[in-house]
Design goal:
The protein is α/β, with parallel strands linked by helices. The protein contains twelve helices and 13 strands. The chain is 34% helix and 16% strand.
Amino acid sequence: MMLRIAILDDYQDVALGLGDWQSLGPDAEVVVFNQNLGTEDAAASALAEFDVLVLMRERMAMPESLIARLPRLKLIVVTGGRTRTIAMEAAVAQGITICHTHAGESGFATPEMAWGLILSLARAIPAEDRRVREGGWQETIGTVIGGKRLGLLGLGKLGSRMVPIAKAFGMEVVAWSQNLTEERAHEVGARLVDKAELFSTSDVVSIHLILSARSRHIVGAAELGLMQPGAMLINTSRGPLVDEAALVGALEAGRIRAGLDVFDLEPLPADHPLRRAPNTVLTPHLGYVTQGAYEAFYRDAVEDIKAWRAGTPVRVLAAPGT
């Protein structure tokens, strides 16, 4: 029987060129989906006849209700080191194995993206680039980040990479998270403050947290209200860490600026108010999207499928009988 493999959310149409899919043999059919399937009904209809799904990070959620509608599915490969959008127990109960890939360059790529957003906001680079191309000339007055304060919400692997770059710009770095200790903050060159002080005194607040029930909407109207006029909020982690309605309100009031690479719903709907909000730089979840990361993702995805077919799966997140 032909093994049918679906590669999901390949927005740039690069997956087939970055993995050795032909090495899977003539009895493997690979189908690429370049657009997000959008709804559970659309996904259930499109994916019903596939044995293997290759997910691009968390772009396509796999809740129990969708898994139950895919009776042929036997393997899910998720690119990256972990996922929080697959109903693991339901998948295993249905006889599905879940494997992952290496994270590639994500540990460097996402902090670099955060700095791109900070600098773009500080000097209005996207707006001025557009103005020059349209025949105009300068209209904005920029701000410097040297000598200012960076507040890091989260100081794990990605958050800690922000610290030496901030110091190279001459910034002071403070940090807070629910479990952060003074020792950890000192170890990476930051100073622990409480949450209110971080939001009320930082010129730039950058979020580097994992999304969980405890961290959802950890930035809400109260925190946004504490921010100084003109301060920047940077989110390259997950959209729901921020109360989106409260953020839209703060932006429309002209109080703060925001650099956003992540959103509650992705792809961001065409009529979403954030697309019209002032004082923003918006990017389409580019944080981990680099050549090196994608090469690692799709190389490993092919390896995962081969190993699973041989009965010796690798990089297993969950599997029947384990």
